[in-house]
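Reply to dn_fold:

You asked what the input looked like. This is it:
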Amino acid sequence: MYTAIGYAAQTATSPLAPMQFQRRSPRPDDVALDILYCGVCHSDIHQARNEWGIAVYPLMPGHEIIGRVTAVGSDVTRYQVGDMVGVGCMVDSCRSCKACQADLEQYCEEGPTMTYATPDRVDGSNTMGGYSSSIVVSEHFVVRVPEGLDPAAAAPILCAGITTYSPLKHHGVGPGHKVGILGMGGLGHMGIKLAKALGAEVTLFTRSAAKAAEARRQGADHVIVSTDQAQMQAAAGHFDFLLDTIPVQHDLNPYLETLTYDGVHILVGLVEPIDPPIHAANLILKRRVIAGSLIGGVAETQEVLDFCAEHNVSCDIEMLDIRHINEAYERMIKGDVKYRFVIDMATLKA
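and this is what came back:
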């Protein structure tokens, strides 16, 4: 084992603060890396403040990790010292269930081991995330950062990128499809870019007409102001897919009415009960589907990184000094970031 440093919450009400802790020495299948950049996800706030009721303290967030390999275990074959790599939301799974065998580790029947605040499958220790100087992870859960991708801007692809890419690919989105993106935060702006790169015609649904120009800069072909009843009615039956990135409860019924028959409304932002209730006629009369999706497996995470490099897609980021992480959390809650904070880990060492 060796001593590492990072920022962690000690309780649900305490701010994140510097902390020394122990990282394990690499096992035979492990890759060790120095962390260069780590994205800041809204779920980091939920976990640090125990808003989901599953937090384990001390809690060190961070699951959008980019770093350089410093050591490899004796059984590692895919990486070597000096490689630029990434670690996303998971660091292990059972690897033997039906989901894991299908490269869908996020749906592991035993539950995946998340990058932080989850018991390690081997020694039972609490996993610590990427708000830290280094990390040690099984080779299977490490991805390669392609040349041509800015490493800092690539960090959020490991969560925001794969969360939007995976359902678009799963449902076969491509040329000729009309896709609506609901919300334009960290997930939504990546949804616009990825759906456009897949060849779809892309429309942003937003409550604010002021976001129209920004949405078009991100690649949206059209913008619909969802509070404008006339615009919503004009869009009735128009879309093949809706990618819903809104993280709070909202009325799905008006959006469902914009789907054509066999249209699919995909939830990736909401993890609470749907409220108000869905009117079943909005599904039955047009054979519409409400679907959900959770991040992506390791193979698909590598796929989205390669896709982004090929199509020149990256996340819009604001670089962050880790000493300002608590202020950044407050800004995120207010929606005051376009569109993802990324911690420069050189500031941790400073």
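The mean pLDDT is 97.
Hope that clears it up.
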